[in-house]
Amino acid sequence: MRILAIDPGYDRLGMAVVEGDASRPTLIWSDCVMPGKGAREERLSCVSRAVLSAIKKYAPDILAIETLFFNKNIKTAVGVAEARGAILVAAGNTSLSVVEYSPQQIKSAVTGYGGADKTAVARMLPLLLSLPEKKRLDDELDAIAIGITALSIGSSRH
Predict the structure, then answer these.
(1) Which helix (H) or strand (E) holds 109?
(2) What is the pLDDT of residues 127-148, one digit of tens each?
(3) Which residues form the active site (predicted)?
(4) What's the number of CA atoms in the CB half-sphere (13 Å) around residue 146?
(5) Residue 54: which domain range?
């Protein structure tokens, strides 16, 4: 199974393509898209184009995305919600099925503990799959973790 995994964001969009199964995940590609500081509609268009481009290039079986969680910063939550909307529209326009996972599900799938912090998740990733040397932002690492989660949890659903 091939997964396009996305850590949704308004300022930074983590994206990864993983395939295989839970016991042997393979990273095909990952990146962090930064839409720039333009108008909201331009930034959301950039998010949508990036997702459509990845769908076209990598032909995933499903799109996996982190569920929206609310923090104290309402402005950030609204931006992430809008980015999620742009991502879901891109998936819908290509008839790509979407699965969603909570932060706790992702942490549990990657580390075995739903209360793990971001550092623990980042430390586990190179133990679970081969990560070519490159500087990665948290958003990109989160997308890889979402992909691993989809392979782990999704294998029982698909």
Answers:
(1) helix 103-111
(2) 999 998 888 999 999 999 999 9
(3) 7, 66, 139
(4) 30
(5) 2-154
| Residues annotated as part of the active site | 7, 66, 139
Q: What is the CATH number of the domain that holds 31?
A: 3.30.420.10
Cβ-contact 82, 45 below 8 angstroms: no
Is 148 in contact with 18 (CB distance < 8 Å)? yes
Nearest 5 degrees, angle CA 86-CA 76-CA 126? 80
**7 is annotated as contributing to ligand binding:** yes
Q: Please report, as a single letter, which amino acid is at residue 125.
A: L
Residue 61, annotated as binding a ligand: no
| DSSP per-residue codes, 60-98 | -SEEEEEPP---S-HHHHHHHHHHHHHHHHHHHHTT-EE
Above 70 in pLDDT, residue 96?
yes
Which tokens go with 149? Answer: 């989660």
Number of domains in the chain: 1
Alpha-carbon gap, residue 113 to 14, rounded angstroms = 22
* The three-state (H, E, C) secondary structure of 116-139, written as one string: CCHHHHHHHHHHHCCCCCCCCCHH
Whether the model clears a pTM of 0.85, i.e. scores above it, the answer is: yes
